[in-house]
């Protein structure tokens, strides 16, 4: 367990020896705030961050077609019928899309694809 005295010492060491980056200037996404404390009237946060991904999401033509039909509100059965594939194949493509995007729902998938402008022709 980190005591207030230990934290104060750590902050003093960091203030004198490390060039810190302000949160507003970072492109990292905060995954979790591990510790929050106030020392001498200043609030300090210890956060776990991951770099913002610079890699472009790449969907196959079939995945893009399925995503567009999902965005229209069609269920897997209708998507499969329209693309002449089984609903199971549609589900497989959706799982792959979810994994690429790091999402767990159709709504989150569509939201992210719209933000990345991946649903335009």
Describe the fold and architecture.
The structure is a single chain. The mean pLDDT is 82. Helices cover 48% and strands 17% of the residues. It starts with a helix and ends in a 6-residue tail after the last helix. It has five helices and two strands, in the order H-E-E-H-H-H-H. The protein folds into two domains: 4-50, no CATH class; 61-115, Winged helix-like DNA-binding domain superfamily/Winged helix DNA-binding domain (Arc Repressor Mutant, subunit A). The protein is rod-shaped and about 65 Å long. Strands 1-2 form a two-stranded antiparallel ribbon. A hairpin with a 2-residue loop joins strand 1 and strand 2. With 121 residues, it is α+β, with helices and mostly antiparallel strands.
Key features of this structure:
2 strands; two-stranded antiparallel ribbon; alpha+beta; 121 residues; 2 domains
Topology, element by element:
Elements: H1 4-17, E1 29-39, E2 42-50, H2 61-71, H3 76-83, H4 87-101, H5 106-115
Helix pairs in contact: 2-4, 2-5, 3-4, 4-5
Proportion of β residues?
A: 15-25%
* Shape-level CATH architecture of the largest domain: Orthogonal Bundle
CATH top-level class of the largest domain: Mainly Alpha
- Using the CA coordinates, give the radius of gyration: 22 Å
**Helix proportion range:** 40-55%
What is the fold named in CATH at topology level of the largest domain? Answer: Arc Repressor Mutant, subunit A
> Which sequence of strands runs across the widest sheet?
1-2
Number of separate structural domains:
2
Strand element count: 2
Question: What is the 3D shape?
Answer: rod-shaped
- Superfamily (CATH H level) name of the largest domain: Winged helix-like DNA-binding domain superfamily/Winged helix DNA-binding domain
